[in-house]
Design a protein that fits this description.
Chain lengths: ~180, ~500
Amino acid sequence: MSSDEFKRRGISPSTPDPSTLAPFGFRASDFEMKTELRNNKDFWAGIMLIAIGAVSIFIARSYPFGSTMRMGPGYFPSMLGAILVLFGTYVTANGMRTGEKIAVHCSLRASIVLSVSLVVFGVLMTYAGFIPALAALIFGSASAGREFKFVEILLLTLILTTLSAAVFISGLGLPYPLIKGF
Amino acid sequence: MELFNHLIFGFSVAFSLQNLLYCFIGVLVGTLIGVLPGIGPTATIAMLLPLTFNVPPVAAMIMLAGIYYGAMYGGSTTSILVNLPGETASVVTCIDGYQMARQGRAGAALAIAAIGSFFAGTVCTLLIALFAPPLAEFALKFSSAEYFSLMLMGLVAAAVLAHGDMAKSLAMVVVGLLLGIVGADVNSGIKPFTFEFYELADGIGVVTIAVGVFAVGEILGNLSDPEERQVFTSKVTNLFPTKDDLKQSFGAIVRGTGVGAFFGVLPGTTPAIASFSSYMIEKKLAKHPSRFGQGAIEGVAGPESANNADAQCKFIPMLTLGIPASGTMALMLGALMIFGITPGPQVMTDKPDLFWGLIASMWIGNVMLVVLNLPLIGIWVSLLKLPYRMLFPAIMAFSAIGIYSVNNSSFDIYLMAIFGILGIIWRMLDCSPVPMMLGFVLGPMVEENLRRTLQVSRGDPSVFVTRPISLAFIVATVLILIVMAAPAVRKLWRAASAG
């Protein structure tokens, strides 16, 4: 199937045509080296892998390493960390060679709003009870969506919270207070 | 006949009222998420797994399996009716299925998809019953050296056969192995990588990672995608395929089942690869290949049989060897461990009710799907009108309640948020989370078997190549790596897995 066909079907193709990836219609050659790296998919993938590998080697240094015969708790993570650094270096180099761009967009707003909603849920579960926590989570995540329709979100929050309380607390008998202090 | 005794025992387990009920719930939920785009079986199983902790393991596994293969059925329904694949495995079904629907033959297409899936499901149930016992018996003789090599092969194969960059997939396996180390070290009492958080002393929960990366990550991905999907529905009339339809599809269904079963046992392949391959084969074999894309019924029958066969045969390596072949299977393996069952060849002898009951339930589930799906199509299609902005807050709520209920701990919720963010970052950087899941689930076992082997051999690693079975696995691993690294093979595979 061509990528056009995919688009028509509303699916994003898993291997996007590189020519369509340059943002805002610029071609890669319009940028200097530095800007190219900022959007370079494999460059960052490699950096991430190197970072994870390096951190795990660093942490594992404080655990006994042991020997091949008697592996200590530091042995396995050090080995894996080293392998990751190797892979990461290769991927980084590969990225600088091919210069493939990041094709998937990430909505920063959605990421922040969704994570904050989860954290609020966690805090409220401890201090305020099931209903306030869940209502906050549903209202919060709903407002991470593309459009913010206040009445609709409010209704959704009400319905989903009631439904969940019925299913999980009354139905499945999860032992959480609906509202703390009552 | 031992085979039939086993199957009869399995059916006696699966036919208990409780197990039938959980099987029904499983396939119902599976069809539902198969119909709805934007939520896949892995995320759903992760989300519902905590809720099964207080049911017996057999019933829980039956339900989780039902979700998995039920999704394959559901995915075809929307592909055919609205040209919208609910699952990636049904992408190819859109091509000819939707054309058939536009020609007023939606009923025939749906029926043939259901019949093909049912045929594939039946054959695969028999295949599992036939091949699982000898395979498990063979694996029972393994020592830690063979296990290590086998897991290495499974992980490498899963990484290189998965869609995407080979080096990155292999690296993600290592990331998963590292995440698996978090938690108390049994041998030394040291708690590596816990950063003084007592909540991490038991390790990171498999459900927490899966829900974070797959459910939250998927939602973030969908919210970031600027395109809104639109739905056009066509009417379903005349559900019965004609005699000609059946005659035309029979070969395709048989071939599709074969293709699906083959790819099913290969680690790392997705049902999408099986269904795509089946489509290509049917097109090659057809007298008039030009009919494909214009509503050829073989183009529905083959791929739909293939993706169901693939989904079901994925259980063979998981149940007999304890090697997960896909992200969903990794999660099922994690579920087994949570239920206190050590995965591996001993599952069949130690827990025969779970093993045979699960297999028999798959056939029962397939029957339910055929009976259920066709009359309920109207309901499924109307569900598509539910906008995503109302769906995803519900997914978030259910996920969060599920995760919280595992340990009654808010800490797991924060972890879920972190893994959600990691999920979208990995998506952006094109690092597949599936090999990570496999590495994570197998991590502790890989480490344990490596440690034990080297302890017995007094630190001599040559033991991995001097024991013949272990050597065979190592050779196979190297061969897979070499073959898949060859540019020509790589290119072909990439084309196939991209659909």
